[in-house]
C-alpha cells in the first residue's frame, strides 16, 4: 500500500473529485479527514466511505475555509484525530462568475 501510515486532509472531500481522492487514499492505506461545507455532508461521506472500506480511518469535519483562524483550528483538530498530518489536498471550490485572472487578492 503506497500510503500506509500516512495522514491526509482533503478539502472538498465529501463528493466528486475530492471524494474519489479520499477513497483512493484510503485504498492505499492512508488515514483521511474529509472537509465539507456542512457537517451533514461530511458525516454522510464518512458513512459512505466506511461502508466501502470498513477498516478505514476516516473523519469528517467542516470549517469556514475563508477564515484563517477557522482553518487553523479545524486542521489542528484533524491532526489530533489522526495523530498528525502528512499531506493536504486543497480541493475545495467555489463558483463565482469572475474570470480567474480578474480576482483581487481579497477575493482569492
UniProtKB/TrEMBL annotation:
Its keywords, alphabetically, are: Oxidoreductase
Q: What GO molecular function terms would the record report?
A: oxidoreductase activity
A Pfam family this chain is assigned to: adh_short
Q: Where are the transmembrane segments?
A: none
Q: Which InterPro entries match?
A: NAD(P)-bd_dom_sf, SDR_fam
The domain of life for this entry's organism is Bacteria
Say yes or no: keyword Oxidoreductase present.
yes
Q: What is its EC number?
A: 1.17.99.5
Q: Family assignment? A: Belongs to the short-chain dehydrogenases/reductases (SDR) family.
Question: Could you identify this protein by its name?
Answer: Bile acid 7-dehydroxylase 1/3
Please give the organism.
Collinsella stercoris DSM 13279
> Which gene is transcribed and translated to give this protein?
baiA
